[in-house]
Design a protein that fits this description.
4 strands; 12 helices; two-stranded antiparallel ribbon; 290 residues; mainly alpha
């Protein structure tokens, strides 16, 4: 029987972990939904955001400034990669983009090791206060992370449904040929999508940095979980990514409380069950080629 206080802490931990998973993978879903590419380099921007947060906070003692700077750098890096690399391979097969982006991830990790070294780096927690929830003291910073994920999800929904650019992106996710037929420059939409995706991935790294040791391999360490989140939710589905991120976060958190190996095993079991019942994921649609 799990203690009530431990259960409350585990649920909050799972929600905060799910929030990081969502911010880290929503860009991957956006890129697949619109461009039909698997952008594993999003995990590079996740690492980059964490390291920029470390550097800025170490130099200025302002962690929030580091998180903001990391998000900006991540967005700019994603824009540069889209312009220099992805524009040359949009028409190639989806496996080609996956292999290319994985190569980009590995090369980026090498660059991070060259710039910051191999030693894991600590980032101070910007909010150390705790709040009582059902008799359990919970770090406020974890609640801030959870709130940030909900704000980002609401912001993406409003952007996709209430702005002209967002509606064009949403239409492109449904059928990019129709958008091209309307005379819209889809490559500009691709660039906007990459900037948003890279910014959010870097934001995930910056927000998570105070809770872990920033490490060059941190992007590779979460690769399996990133795949599980987007596959369970359905490739290209923002809603699916949101739901599955919190599902995986809770499974990892509560599974580790019940039996430590479950933290690694249970998400794979859930992914298997979901794919057996619904091969396209919870909210995914059949794969369509551009």
């Amino acid at each position: 029987m799990i203690d009530a206080h431990l259960l409350t802490s585990g649920i909050i931990f799972g929600l905060s972990l799910g929030s990081i998973f969502f911010l880290m993978t929503v860009g991957l879903s956006l890129c697949f939904g619109l461009m039909r590419i698997i952008s594993l380099d999003q995990l590079l921007y996740y690492s980059l955001g964490a390291y920029v947060t470390y550097s800025i906070s170490h130099a200025t003692s302002y962690v929030w400034l580091g998180v903001l700077a990391g998000a900006v750098v991540g967005g700019l890096a994603a824009f540069a990669v889209e312009r220099l690399l992805y524009r040359r391979i949009y028409e190639r097969d989806i496996t080609f983009s996956m292999i290319t982006s994985f190569g980009m991830l590995i090369a980026g990790i090498g660059a991070i090791k060259y710039i910051w070294g191999l030693t894991p780096r600590p980032v101070s927690v910007p909010i150390t206060a705790e709040v009582d929830i059902l008799g359990t003291l919970v770090p406020i910073y974890r609640l801030v992370i959870i709130g940030a994920a909900f704000v980002v999800y609401a912001g993406i929904w409003l952007f996709l449904n209430r702005t002209m650019v967002g509606k064009a992106i949403r239409a492109g996710i449904e059928n990019v040929e129709h958008v091209e037929g309307l005379g819209i420059n889809v490559y500009r939409l691709f660039a906007v999508t990459f900037i948003i995706a890279g910014t959010l991935s870097a934001l995930a790294g910056g927000l998570y940095a105070p809770l872990i040791m920033v490490d060059p391999q941190m992007g590779l360490d979460v690769l399996a979980f990133a795949f599980m989140v987007v596959i369970i939710g359905g490739l290209g589905s923002i809603k699916g990514t949101f739901v599955s991120a919190f599902l995986v976060g809770q499974v990892v958190s509560l599974g580790s409380l019940a039996y430590a190996p479950l933290a690694q095993m249970a998400p794979f079991a859930i992914m298997l069950v979901v794919l057996l019942v619904k091969p396209t994921g919870l909210y995914g649609s059949p794969l369509l080629k551009r």
